């Protein structure tokens, strides 16, 4: 009977919202501690100056920008899974898009902090925003950094709207099934949603429109981020392949992060029956694709350097592969390209442990990739007399740790307050499944 | 026109197909109006609902917007918002660079190519906001909600429901119709 | 008690008296509170004086703003400087405003602790002490050739004491040959220079004078220019500028010089044939032959006698044989006054024997340079009086520490040559409770019962300059002649060498005419002590050993520290040694072969030990501990170490930095042992590669080669062509540009120091400098490629190129980096938010970021140039083309209702460059010098032209001439 299935879905998911377990609380505490460490480290940097970091001339961008790009990349799979796969009517998206979108939001929030942490004079960061002022001083819209600001803020806004619109029906459901303060809370959050056809049809159109807008946005945002580098003149940065290369890389790391987060999540929230292996296998397959694209980009970069005959590009590529950052370079090739290829084997693809490990490995690999691109590109520039080297110092480490803490803190609190799996979509799937029978 | 007091008949279904059957027969039964409820996206039920044209093609959408027949204008509003964003952001970029006419990197103060990025993001930003607000507006979320006396909380959970408003003489036949369709519960409201 | 009117007036009278007394001796300095007529706030006031950072005696102009000295420049009229200064002269303000200067007189009690004393008490106590000493008095002073020298001699004379003029670098090697005279070297008159390990462009005798002479003769005229061969153990900056370097083991220069001479057919001791010497020393015989041929071909060769006695002798032999009067012993340098080292040894012996009761050390620092023996002997001296502005090593063992005025605070005169007399005047009021050294000597003499016939040193000085002195020693009238002399900074006859060298006039508008009248005191009456000095005879060839089995030691004065007296200037500490690019410390140089033998690599720390044998036993063993730097610039088997660091006192910037090279002297070709050292020491060396990797940033060309000119993308609208996506943009009126002539650059770092002082550039310290955070706006890159025989080391001044299509500008999100309508690449500090994208995108990497909040400890902040913003933490900064100087010139031009003349704007680096590397001007003026050069000079090129950034800094290729 249909409603049996539907009720079960509700029970499972809404059940995941009640009293947190002890393990959950401990994890929460740990994340909070990490955040505190990060904040303390930032205080040091704020009062003493950027000098407490390992930055220097020529390498004046380092861990912070690496983290920024890394988090932005992670932010990408969310919208990919919900928007693009929605347009393609991909069935397997429905189980995981909510968690993915939430991850996106929190990743953007975390990423957005890093440009500020990185600023030499953060107290005047708002000068970069286009706001009317009596001196008529506006930002320089030619600067890729301003593109960044516009793109990332847009991305955050749209992702938020998209996420919330998808959440509304489920909030209605939760409201109808809960009492007391929760009922009050969810009545407010649900915007007075009732699942009548008249609402559903407007809702469907709105959701479609947002998906249609979010899709090109996903592509554009990480392209813009890549242009932070591609628009400069540095060897190793000034490359036309960067936009697709970064987008693919972003999705690569994003999917990996979704896997890394959801595998423990389904255990903690007891959603094993809903978040079945099926979804993860699909993502694993997608990882093979993105991994190959990234690998292709690596090859093309080197090939173009050789083919262009440009002395700076050629020497740069040799130095990057053999110089002080060589180990990172080869590590990134191995972790981002070779490791995902193991997913060709169904045995590995369907192995929870391996999926979890691979998720982490790819995330590490993608961090290395950004690090090698940014730092490597700066360390060996045009004028040999200015060549240098960069190594992060304690402050940067602590702040990076803090950012991870912040992200996890947000995500964990999310899964306790909102249905982390979209019920409506699941019900659709269930019904369709029954019709097919 | 003589004021006819319409009376509501509510039917509840556990089975999705029965629910759809009921809607189908209601459509031909000459009941002036009825509303459907369900925990899953009911957008596809359009053909089974009272004659309110559902846009199926871009052409139709345009026609609706122009003729103001306003079936689901959300997409239309989104489009308008997007175009506004495009123009607005491009204008902002050009106008602000003309204030001081600063030369950077040997480029003229206004250089169009980079501003395309700004305009592009603006398009999406305003388009998305417009779509969201329009959805809330037309689906009457936040902005004034209509009374739904027949609403049952389980409609958002595992039940499907039909609320038909019919003339007094139609009540019996409608209730009968719903029962035949396989409603687990039928009552007049 | 009610104050009566009478008492009030009395009190006021006293106060007034106090005021008038406080200005005694400073007739021309008036406190700011009642404004003097010639002092306009905001307008700079220039005072002429003499640089005393080394014995060279360059004339100096000091720019003061609101009675603070803020910048030193060379005196364009004075024939030694011709308007230029060296790196040390530029940084001399760091010495004036040294935060560790002595602030008041002190005496060391029985507890060996210093306690402040009143001047009066100190002088009276010392006076009695000197009287009781009865001639057992000695004055050790650094070189003073003018009135102060005379005063000290009459002081010692009247008390039966002696004066020892002590300069650690005493050129005794030359004196041994000439009979006590350091002659004048007319390099400008020569067409072939042979330097026998004389770094005459860095520290040797009179570097600035020699540098501008060198620049003049290296100017290619009619396809010919002077050739330059360097023979020495190490590729110094001077050697890097040569056409041929013959790198020989330390102490073997003489052999090579003799060989060259014999090749050139000049009578040289037998056995020194090219092949024999080459074989013996393991060098290339062809080099010697080539040098010999060049010497033979030269019509007016000059040999510079650096190195040890043998090397000096060999060089002077060439001069006497071929030198057409270019080495002029008739125009002795003031250095001739330095007492022979035997005198100092004798004094130290007497001190040790307890024959000295009062030892007055004036500015010299024997405890640092003469070290061990002096410190030991000093224990037996009852009163050691240290007269110096600083608390140096000698002050640390003195029991009287009398702070004297810095030379920029004091009256005086200095005579580098008999026909050149500099007058020194106070450029500002004294900062601390110090006194003129002259006054102290006079006062001490008086209290000791000897009257030297002058009330004050000023009066003494005026007497010697023939001033009308009334009874009682009051200077009645200020003679106009004296006025003129003080105004121009001295009295002199133009140097015969400066015929075709343009004096570098800085921002001082309307230069006064050279002074006349006011009879200068005649040449310093020094007795040419024709001692039968241990004249270095001519050794046999086998005397010279290549140092295959044992290690030879070579010590060289650091271009920034001379003999170590400049070590407490943090600007100089942060300016790298030109060739090896080390900062903040000492190092040990050795050849890769040597390093392999010793099993050490760069950055390893070694302890160099020198044992002085005496009577079959080690009488003295000294150590020098520093990190190793391995490079091919040193002769195999030779260990090269710099002198000047390793102070144990002297101030916060010098104390404990590096090791003391003087502990390895007297040196030349002595053997040393090398062992492992304290591994905690770090090699502070600027980062970056000295290999160009074939990128053609510093380029070379043949002499008079008419090869195809490099393409130049002019930073003007016409510079934009097909390869440009955007059209060019116009500038209104001016487009400033700078031409840098690599052929003239000798890497002396003077421009760098000038930039630091002019633009308030911050100093970051050893750790950050090592980490790539030095703030210098202008750096002298040195690229090394040993496969290039004629010019293996290329100096390449790198500064903001003020590109017309600047990559740094377009990426700034807030327009902090933008283009001015005069073509200058502006950095708006107040607008900068510190994204550092501009630095990333600058291909020349000349942008500097304020990583911390950098400060200038009191009173160093007085030095800050009021015309230049001091940058705050978190903002980017870089070269501005000295925009403050541009504005100054434009304003003064506008006042006279005209356009600025070409050459009227002079940047700080251009102003001080001894060889005239830089030319600044307006590219939009077709007749300007820069336009002419860019149009016509076949050597013109742009760094990284390929990137099409259209730099406004145009380089001229270095001319390479095989010998």
Question: What can you see in these coordinates?
Answer:
The complex is a heterotrimer of chains A (437), B (189) and C (963). Chain A is 74% helix and 0% strand. By secondary structure, chain A is mainly α. In chain B, helix 1 packs antiparallel against helix 5 (171-181) and helix 3 (74-100) packs antiparallel against helix 4 (112-138). Chain B starts with 6 loop residues before the first strand and ends with a strand. The mean pLDDT of chain B is 80. In chain C, the strands form eleven sheets. Chain C has a seven-stranded mixed sheet with strand order 5-4-16-15-14-6-7, sandwiched between helices. In chain C, a hairpin with a 2-residue loop joins strand 22 and strand 23 (617-630). In chain C, helix 13 (341-352) runs parallel beside helix 15. Chain C starts with a helix and ends with a strand. Classes of the chains: A mainly alpha (437), B alpha+beta (189), C alpha/beta (963). The interface between A and C is large, with 48 and 54 residues.
Descriptive labels:
B: 189 residues, alpha+beta, 4 strands, C: 963 residues, alpha/beta, six-stranded mixed beta sheet
């Amino acid at each position: 009977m249909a409603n049996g299935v539907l009720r079960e879905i509700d029970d499972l998911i809404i059940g995941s919202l009640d009293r947190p377990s002890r393990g959950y609380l401990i994890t929460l505490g740990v994340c909070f501690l990490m955040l505190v460490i990060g904040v303390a480290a930032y205080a040091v940097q704020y009062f003493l100056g950027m000098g407490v970091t390992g930055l220097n001339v020529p390498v004046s961008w380092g861990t912070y920008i690496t983290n920024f790009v890394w988090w932005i990349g992670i932010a990408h799979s969310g919208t990919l899974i919900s928007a693009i796969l929605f347009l393609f009517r991909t069935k397997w998206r429905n189980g995981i898009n909510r968690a993915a979108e939430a991850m996106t939001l929190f990743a953007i929030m975390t990423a957005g902090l890093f440009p500020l942490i990185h600023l030499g004079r953060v107290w005047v960061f708002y000068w970069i925003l286009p706001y009317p002022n009596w001196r008529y001083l506006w930002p320089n819209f030619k600067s890729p950094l301003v593109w960044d600001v516009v793109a990332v803020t847009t991305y955050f806004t749209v992702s938020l709207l998209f996420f919330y619109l998808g959440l509304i029906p489920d909030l209605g459901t939760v409201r109808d099934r809960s009492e007391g303060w929760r009922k009050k809370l969810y009545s407010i959050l649900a915007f007075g949603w009732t699942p009548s056809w008249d609402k559903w049809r407007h809702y469907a159109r709105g959701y479609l429109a947002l998906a249609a807008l979010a899709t090109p946005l996903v592509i554009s945002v990480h392209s813009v981020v890549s242009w932070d580098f591609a628009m400069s003149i540095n060897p190793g940065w000034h490359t036309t392949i960067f936009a697709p290369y970064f987008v693919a890389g972003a999705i690569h790391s994003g999917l990996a992060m979704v896997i890394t987060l959801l595998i423990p999540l389904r255990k903690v929230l007891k959603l094993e029956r809903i978040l079945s292996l099926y979804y993860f296998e699909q993502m694993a397959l997608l990882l093979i694709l993105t991994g190959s694209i990234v690998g292709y980009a690596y090859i093309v970069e080197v090939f173009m350097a050789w083919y262009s005959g440009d002395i700076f590009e050629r020497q740069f590529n040799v130095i990057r592969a053999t110089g002080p950052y060589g180990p990172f370079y080869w590590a990134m090739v191995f972790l981002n390209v070779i490791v995902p290829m193991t997913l060709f084997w169904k045995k590995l693809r369907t192995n929870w442990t391996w999926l979890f490990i691979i998720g982490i490995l790819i995330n590490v690999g993608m961090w290395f990739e950004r690090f090698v691109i940014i730092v490597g590109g700066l360390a060996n520039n045009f004028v040999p007399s200015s060549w240098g080297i960069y190594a992060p110092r304690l402050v940067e480490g602590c702040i990076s740790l803090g950012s991870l803490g912040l992200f996890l803190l947000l995500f964990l609190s999310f899964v306790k307050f909102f249905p982390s799996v979209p019920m409506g979509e699941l019900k659709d799937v269930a019904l369709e499944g029954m019709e097919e029978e | 026109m003589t004021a006819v007091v319409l009376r509501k008949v509510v039917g509840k279904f556990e089975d999705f197909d029965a629910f759809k059957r009921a809607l189908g027969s209601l459509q031909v039964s000459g009941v002036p109006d009825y509303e459907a409820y369900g925990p899953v996206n009911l957008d596809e039920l359009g053909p089974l609902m009272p004659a309110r044209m559902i846009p199926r093609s871009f052409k139709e959408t345009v026609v609706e917007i122009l003729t103001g027949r306003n079936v689901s204008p959300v997409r239309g509003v989104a489009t308008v918002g997007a175009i506004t964003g495009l123009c607005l952001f491009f204008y902002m970029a050009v106008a602000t660079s003309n204030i001081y006419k600063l030369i950077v990197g040997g480029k003229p103060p206004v250089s169009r190519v980079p501003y395309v990025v700004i305009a592009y993001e603006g398009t999406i930003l305003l388009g998305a906001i417009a779509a969201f607000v329009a959805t809330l507006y037309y689906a009457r979320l936040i902005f004034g909600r209509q009374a739904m006396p027949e609403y049952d909380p389980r409609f958002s959970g595992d039940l499907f429901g039909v609320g038909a408003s019919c003339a007094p003489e139609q009540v019996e036949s409608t209730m009968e119709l719903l029962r035949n369709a396989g409603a687990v519960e039928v009552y007049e409201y | 008690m009610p104050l009566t009117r009478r008492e009030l007036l009395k009190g006021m009278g006293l106060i007034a008296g106090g005021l008038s007394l406080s200005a005694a001796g400073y007739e021309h300095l008036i406190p700011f509170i009642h404004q003097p007529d010639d002092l306009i706030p905001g307008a700079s006031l220039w005072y002429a004086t003499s640089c005393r950072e080394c014995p060279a005696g360059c004339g100096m102009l000091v720019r003061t703003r609101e009675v603070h000295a803020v910048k030193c420049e060379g005196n364009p009229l004075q024939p030694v400087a011709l308007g230029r200064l060296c790196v040390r002269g530029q940084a001399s303000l760091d010495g004036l405003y040294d935060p560790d200067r002595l602030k008041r007189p002190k005496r060391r009690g029985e507890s060996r602790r210093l306690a402040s004393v009143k001047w009066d008490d100190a002088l009276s106590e010392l006076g009695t002490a000197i009287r009781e000493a009865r001639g057992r008095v000695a004055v050790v002073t650094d070189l003073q050739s003018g009135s102060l020298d005379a005063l000290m001699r009459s002081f010692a004379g009247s008390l039966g004491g002696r004066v020892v003029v002590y300069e650690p670098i005493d050129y005794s090697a030359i004196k041994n040959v000439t009979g006590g005279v350091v002659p004048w070297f007319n390099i400008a008159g020569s067409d072939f220079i042979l330097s026998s390990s004389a770094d005459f462009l860095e520290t040797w005798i009179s570097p600035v004078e020699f540098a501008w002479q060198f620049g003049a003769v290296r100017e290619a005229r009619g396809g010919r220019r002077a050739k330059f061969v360097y023979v020495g153990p190490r590729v110094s900056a001077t050697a890097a500028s040569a056409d041929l370097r013959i790198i020989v083991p330390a102490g073997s220069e003489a052999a090579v010089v003799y060989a060259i001479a014999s090749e050139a057919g000049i009578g040289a001791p037998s056995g020194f044939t090219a092949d024999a010497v080459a074989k013996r020393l393991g060098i290339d015989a062809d080099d010697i032959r080539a040098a010999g041929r060049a010497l033979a071909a030269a019509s007016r060769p000059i040999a510079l006698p650096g190195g040890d006695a043998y090397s000096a002798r060999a060089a002077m032999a060439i001069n006497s044989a071929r030198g057409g009067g270019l080495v002029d012993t008739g125009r002795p340098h003031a250095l001739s006054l330095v007492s022979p080292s035997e005198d100092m040894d004798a004094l130290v012996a007497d001190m040790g024997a307890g024959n000295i009761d009062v030892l007055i050390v004036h500015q010299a620092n024997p405890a640092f340079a003469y070290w061990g023996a002096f410190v030991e002997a000093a224990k037996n001296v009852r009163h050691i009086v240290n007269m110096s502005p600083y608390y140096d090593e000698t002050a640390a063992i003195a029991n009287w520490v009398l702070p004297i005025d810095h030379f920029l605070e004091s009256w005086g005169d200095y005579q580098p040559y008999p026909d050149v007399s500099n007058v020194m005047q106070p450029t500002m009021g004294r900062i601390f409770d110090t006194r003129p050294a002259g006054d102290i000597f006079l006062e001490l003499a008086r209290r000791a019962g000897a009257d030297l016939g002058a009330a004050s040193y000023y009066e003494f000085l005026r007497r010697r300059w023939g001033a009308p002195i009334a009874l009682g020693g009051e200077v009645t009238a200020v003679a106009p002649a004296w006025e003129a002399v003080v105004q121009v900074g001295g009295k002199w006859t133009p140097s015969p060498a400066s015929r075709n060298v343009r004096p570098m006039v800085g921002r001082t508008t309307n230069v006064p005419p050279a002074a006349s009248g006011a009879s200068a005191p005649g040449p310093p009456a020094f007795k040419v002590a024709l001692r039968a000095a241990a004249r270095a005879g001519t050794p046999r060839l086998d005397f010279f050993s290549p140092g295959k089995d044992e290690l030879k030691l070579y010590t060289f004065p650091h271009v920034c520290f001379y003999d170590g007296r400049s070590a407490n200037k943090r600007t100089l500490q942060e300016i790298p040694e030109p060739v090896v690019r080390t900062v903040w410390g000492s190092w040990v140089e050795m050849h890769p072969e040597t390093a392999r033998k010793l099993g050490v690599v760069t950055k390893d720390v070694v302890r160099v030990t020198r044992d002085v044998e005496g009577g079959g036993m080690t009488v003295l063993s000294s150590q020098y501990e520093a990190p190793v730097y391995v490079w091919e610039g040193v002769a195999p088997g030779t260990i090269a170490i710099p002198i000047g660091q390793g102070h144990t006192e002297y101030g916060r910037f010098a104390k404990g930095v590096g090791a003391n090279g003087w502990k390895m002297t007297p040196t030349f070709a002595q053997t040393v042992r090398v062992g492992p050292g304290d591994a905690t020491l770090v090699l502070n060396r600027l980062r970056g590669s000295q290999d160009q990797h074939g990128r053609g940033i510093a380029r070379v060309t043949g002499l008079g080669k008419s090869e195809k000119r490099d393409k130049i993308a002019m930073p003007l609208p016409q510079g934009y062509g097909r390869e440009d996506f955007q059209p060019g943009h116009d500038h209104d009126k001016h487009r400033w540009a700078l031409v840098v002539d690599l052929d003239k650059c000798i890497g002396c770092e003077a421009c760098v120091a000038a930039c630091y002082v002019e633009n308030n550039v911050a100093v970051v310290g050893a750790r950050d400098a090592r980490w790539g955070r030095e703030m210098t706006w202008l750096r002298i890159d040195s690229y090394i490629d040993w496969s290039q025989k004629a010019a293996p080391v290329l100096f390449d001044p790198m500064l903001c190129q003020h590109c017309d299509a600047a990559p740094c500008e377009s990426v700034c999100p807030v327009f902090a980096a933008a283009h001015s309508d005069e073509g200058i690449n502006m950095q708006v500090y107040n607008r900068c938010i510190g994204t550092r994208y501009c630095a990333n995108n600058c291909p020349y990497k000349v942008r500097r970021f304020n990583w911390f909040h950098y400060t200038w400890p009191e009173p160093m902040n007085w030095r800050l140039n009021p015309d230049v913003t001091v940058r705050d933490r978190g903002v980017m900064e870089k070269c501005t083309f000295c925009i403050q100087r541009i504005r100054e010139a434009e304003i003064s031009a506008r006042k006279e209702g005209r356009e600025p003349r070409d050459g009227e704007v002079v940047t700080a680096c251009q102003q001080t460059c001894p060889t005239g590397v830089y030319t600044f001007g307006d590219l939009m003026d077709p007749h300007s010098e820069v336009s002419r050069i860019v149009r016509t000079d076949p050597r013109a090129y742009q760094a990284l032209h390929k990137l099409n950034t259209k730099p406004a800094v145009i380089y001229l290729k270095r001319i390479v001439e095989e010998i």
